[in-house]
Specification:
The complex is a heterodimer of chains A (about 300) and B (about 280). Chain A has helices spanning about 1-15, 20-30, 35-50, 55, 95-130, 130-145, 150-160, 165-190, 195-200, 205-215, 220-245, 255-260, 270-300. Chain A has a single domain (about 30-55, about 80-300), classed as MetI-like fold (Orthogonal Bundle), CATH 1.10.3720.10. The longest helix of chain A has about 35 residues, at about 95-130. Chain A starts with a helix and ends in a 7-residue tail after the last helix. Chain A is mostly helical and about 300 residues long. Chain A has 13 helices and no strands. By secondary structure, chain B is α/β, with parallel strands linked by helices. Chain B is built from eleven helices and ten strands. In chain B, strands 6-7-8-3-9-10 form a six-stranded mixed β-sheet, with helices on both faces. A four-stranded antiparallel β-sheet of chain B has the order 2-1-4-5, covered by helices on one side. In chain B, helix 4 packs parallel to helix 6, helix 5 (about 125-140) crosses helix 6 and helix 6 (about 155-170) runs parallel beside helix 7 (about 185-205). The N and C termini of chain B lie far apart (about 60 Å). The model of chain B has no long low-confidence stretch (mean pLDDT about 85). The chains are: A mainly alpha (about 300), B alpha/beta (about 280). Chains A and B meet through helix 1 and helix 9 of A and helix 4, helix 6 and helix 7 of B.
Amino acid sequence: MADESAADATAAEVPTGTPPHALAEFWYYFSVNKGAVAGLVVFSLLVLVAIFAPFLAPHSPYEQFRDALLTPPVWQEGGRPEFILGTDPVGRDMLSRLIFGARYSLFIGLVVVVFALVSGIILGVLAGYFRGWVDTAIMRVMDVILAFPSLLLALVLVAILGPGLFNAMLAIALVLQPHFARLTRAAVMSEKNREYVVSAKVAGAGHLRLMMITILPNCVAPLIVQATLSFSNAILEAAALGFLGMGAQPPTPEWGTMLASAREFILRAPWVVTFPGLAILITVLSINLIGDGLRDALDPKLKRS
Amino acid sequence: MTGPVLEGRDIKRDYHVPGGLFGKARTVHAVKGVSFKVDKGKTLAIVGESGCGKSTLARIITLIDAATAGELLIDGNKVDIARDGLTPELRRKVQIVFQNPYGSLNPRQKIGDVLGEPLLINTAIPAAERRDLAMQMLKKVGLEEKHYNRYPHMFSGGQRQRIAIARALMLRPSLLVLDEPVSALDLSVQAQVLNLLADLQDEFELTYVFISHDLSVVRYIADEVMVMYFGEAVEYGPRDTVFGNPQHAYTKTLLAATPRADVESIRARIARKRAA
């Protein structure tokens, strides 16, 4: 007894009482991946830009300067200092529109991921926990959704629901949701037969408690990674729908819609197309890098101890 | 009253293995008609090799699975979870401690919540009182109050097994099923946990069903011993009878298979090796 308690004392003193060292450990593994940290910095900047858009943007995103149609950026010949990134075909300031566009893109990503995550988790937990016909019914529907090319399915859905930003988000969430359902189901199935779940059952826990309180918290790591990667996917697909005229409608300063309305000027005024495209690229890239870093930090199989 | 806390009459459990593309469906008889009786405060040890049905029997006694046939009586009342379901009162009578202390605690649950959960689910005791009860139980199993807010990964195997025992005792069960509770622990910790179990048995008047394949552990803790072999109870009786005068051939083999570490047997083994 004596030597065990002595050994315990040393073992217990290292992680002191409170357990926030889980977060410190997470940061340790996350910061190993330099790309992920860079992604996090860029993404944080984007979030700040989106939040403080009204203070940062030099003009209103809707105001048309009739005397300055298709003004090139300042560093090109004919550029004007008040329009740093130039203007679009109806004389709106590109920089202001891009800054306000960040709001839309992040909002789209967030809403779509929340929709897809919540519905995917519920369906996945039900399928993985009950198995049998519930599992078969849910997963076959998921397989059908996965069998369609995602953009095509989203396009069909928006065509049915009617074009608009909200319907586009709903459609994209529905298209992304099977990935979450599958991941959750797999994680729940592997956790379900662990002894701690049986212990909770012996303690009298009901189905709902077992599913949501006992099992689900042990399945979150892969879901967080998938959520981050879906975030960028959602932004891309919303931009694609916007480009095809099915997403946000003009004059909304959404990046995909901006691309679409400017594509006829691609040779005459390349900046009108380049900058929204660059904005999408940078956002998606930074989020994907964060997702990779999260995977390294949260997946115990990739951890170097 | 001193009637048997637990009685099993001719308990059977079959598993149906569905036929695949090439194989036919067949039935595996995991437990083939086992009867036993345990009095209050006593320990029944169930011994046998891997796959002999002892863990299946444990799941039946713990009311996790239903028996295919036979009667199970707890405190003299017949229990049939396949027909009547499981009531909270029954739930409180039987608890289990699992073999692997690393798998039986939820990694995302603090020790305090692990201990409080059975009370939260089965009783209407307010949170503050649950906390006090959990603290008391922590001390009873040899842990400290500062461990209340820690996560399972911060504990050693022996400490985790203590936590698992504490959780099982939170509902004050009359019957505790111990499914190889010490076989995942090293020897010195095994002794500590066994002593703890013996102390708790005296304190709470617990009845134990102790499942093991380790005969030295069984000899230490059991009052009665049941030897299982391929789903059947081949030998059942008081500890000293079973160990002193084994009747069945399998029991004799089992007792002979216990490794010997005394000097004489080591000398004999070395002599045999030289001769060969």
